[in-house]
Design goal:
The protein is an alpha+beta fold. The chain contains three helices and ten strands; from the N terminus they run ααββββββββββα.
């Protein structure tokens, strides 16, 4: 009887492990958010090296290159891969960003640069207000953005060398990697009208050629 229970328990444990899917974590595996205006996001850029530690902060600056207004957001992840802010709740999100407009979001306010918004970190992952080895993901309702990112000293300002002998504060560019279109879905069906009222373009995969079909004759 004891052996039967042990076999049943082991079998149940193995079945449970088999049912468990991969853990969603980090900028490539975490499901994409929906903005508070119900528009779905696509992933535009990812980055490693998002820092919020020892008075260093990360700023991400994005310009809308589309012909209509778009929603833009920044998501950050800590060293555990946990998502530390909610674009859906408005943290790191900018709605209806106009054509040609630029927005800046930071992990905190800095004396050196201007931030339109700073992130509010949740208690997930390492449960601290620190990003030691963080990563990030820029999301939007369009891929037509250009963005850059920097890690900056949040306490000090650039001084006039004619009146000050202080060195300039730290500022280092953070590489952003732009992601291609995923393809295979109709963006108009996914998101409906774009912010600004215009319909989204249809994006579909090219039709595959039947290898058994007769060749085209010109």
């Amino acid at each position: 009887m004891t052996r039967s229970f042990a076999r049943v328990g082991l079998g149940f444990l193995l079945w449970t492990l088999g049912q468990a899917g991969p853990v969603a974590a980090g900028p490539t595996d975490t499901p994409l958010p929906t903005f508070s205006d119900t528009h779905h996001a696509v992933s535009v850029y990812i980055a490693a090296g998002v820092i919020k530690n020892n008075n260093l902060e990360t700023d991400v600056i994005c310009t809308n290159l589309d012909t209509v207004a778009v929603d833009i957001g920044l998501e950050v992840f800590d060293e555990t891969g946990a998502l530390r802010n909610s674009v859906a709740a408005g943290s790191g999100a900018f709605l209806n960003v106009g054509v040609g407009k630029t927005v800046t979001v930071g992990t905190a306010g800095t004396a050196e640069l201007h931030e339109d918004q700073v992130l509010t970190l949740n208690a997930a992952g390492n449960a601290t207000t620190v990003l030691r080895n963080g990563s990030g993901r820029v999301v939007a309702t369009s891929k037509n953005l250009i963005c850059t990112a920097v890690v900056v000293d949040k306490l000090h300002m650039v001084q006039d060398p004619a009146t000050s002998s202080l060195p300039p504060p730290s500022l280092a560019q953070l590489q952003l990697i732009k992601l291609p279109w995923a393809g295979g879905w109709d963006e108009a069906t996914l998101n409906g009208p774009r912010p600004g009222g215009r319909a989204r373009p249809r994006r579909t995969r090219p039709r595959r050629r039947d290898r058994h079909a007769a060749p085209d004759l010109q």
